[in-house]
Each structure stands twice: as C-alpha cells, then as structure tokens.
Amino acid sequence: MKLEVRNVSKTFDTKEAVKDVSFGVEEGEFLSILGPSGCGKTTLLRMLIGLIKPSSGTIFKDGEDITYAAPSQRNMGFVFQNYALFENMTVLGNVEYALKIKKETKAVARERALDLIEKMGLTEHKDKKPYSLSGGQQQRVAIARTLALNPDVILFDEPMSALDVATRLSLRKELKHIQKEFNTTMVYITHDQEEAFAMSDKILVMDTAVAVQLDTPENIIKHPANEYVKNFVVENLKIKIDSLSKYIGVANE
Prior knowledge:
alpha/beta
C-alpha cells in the first residue's frame, strides 16, 4: 500500500473537520476524494502532505508512519488550486527552483526542468512570467514544478476549478498520461462528480467530515453505499447526462 490512512480525525476548536476517516491508495493509483464544499476533503489532503497535523489517527506511506513527519520528508508533491507560482520568475525559473536548492539535483536542474517543460507543452513559453500565461498554462507550470522533484505521490487540491471546460478536458488527459508515464500515485480533490468519474481508478466519497464509500467508479454507480451517495453522486451524474443526451442525436445528424 502506497498510502494508508487509519482513523484520522481533525478538530479545529470544537468543530470536527474530519472524523475517523480510513482509506488506502495503491501504488500508481489515481484516487479522487469527492465531496461538497466544506466536507473536510482539503483538510484531509493537507494532513497527507503534512501542512497540518491530525488530532488523532495515523498516516502511513510505504508502511512507514509519517503522521508527524515534515512535508519535506514525505516525497510528495502538492498542486494548489491557485497555482502558487513565483510571479517574479520565468516558467523555467519556477520549474527549476526546487531543484537548484537541493545539492544533489542542482547540476541537472536546467536539463530536467527543460525536459519537463517540453513534456507539458510549454517550451515556447519557458522565458515568460506567469502573469502572461493563461490559467491552463499556469497550471501546467505548477504541475511541471511538482514533477521536477520526482515525487512518488502527487496531491491535487481542486486544480481545475478556475479553468474553462476545454482546458480542463485537456489537462485531464495530461494528468492520466503523467500517471502512466511516471507511475505516480495521485490523490485528487474535487467537488465535481463527472470529473472524478472520468479520471479515477477509485473514488472516496465524503459527506460532512466523514468518508462514506471507497470503491471503483463502476461499483459506486451499481452499489451506492447509502442514500447520500445515491443522491450526491449517482443522481447528479444522471442529471448531467440527461441534460446533454437530447443533443447527441443532433450532433450525429
């Protein structure tokens, strides 16, 4: 098991943000954590990366207890919703930044950064600053910067919520390609049912503070764990499909 979360809880003052959540992620697997805003999914992600500590419970990576390990000791990458790029640096500068501050990677920083920039389709933009890029291009820079340190787990905090539909569809394909090419384990936060089902090997469905079902997309559709999953996931997907199905015949005429 690449990642294992056992009975993790987090309380802020008197509010339970995450309550007794357990799940596992296999190596090379794409897991989406799906739930409405405020259900605790981002809090859970930040505990995985080490930005906040659990109130109780244990987190394992490759069988090792990392519950209180520093983020730098976890070999995980984090892609933020707002990109978190250095505005005063070029695309190349952003991607090679983390490599240049590590002694063992400083010598190969430029070469590795240029290779990742090329793979993300950003070569013609390598000397531009972030403000001159589109949202999709900025997110590609953020992903390339994360990949530069070769993490074996990448965590995504709703990275496409601010992007237009066409860009989101393109980035979905790229993330799946990266997952296969680098054999990277990915944990992806989203409130979008269709996005989760399009990308995931497994989905963890969350209600307020609690995990209610962990399964493959197919099994969640066939066997929703309770009425909440049926309504929040299955019925919402059906509504989206039904709203578009009447146009399918027109498109094929």
